[in-house]
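U., I forgot to send this yesterday:
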Amino acid sequence: MTEAVNSEYEGSSEGAVRHWEIPYARLEDTSPTPTNPAAVLAVASDENQVCGTVLSIDAGDSVAVIDFTCGMVYRQTVRNVTTYGGAVETVWAAMDIGYEVYYDRSATMPAGTYLSLAAADNTAAANPKFGHIVPLTVADMALYPKGGITASTQTCGVMQRGAGS
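Result:
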């Protein structure tokens, strides 16, 4: 008996890859850039908003293709702020492997940086959970903990939560 792949199903060696087009207007950052983190607006913005990484944009149709794959690792810039006191950063931590990373909406974030260690933004609203810090390479592994207890922005591997986690 010969086995055949049923035409109603698709197989992939990568597992459940989730790439989806999202209109710019439905994103926290309405001017998305490929390789940057993204968070989809929700009726009630909170820690469970779906987040992913922008793969490409179509400026003509104002949509971004976002990778929402759970467990996918991307090189990201992460701010080491953990706590805000109103509009200013007040507490920082050295980043380490396994630390949770959030999509930070704070106006105080450096340009081009969307992720931090802060569970709440500078208005005390919950930041969406984005993922966890992981080493990019064996050489990168030796650099942890990164940052320190003063303000800094570091390049880290971030394993995103994505959709379905």
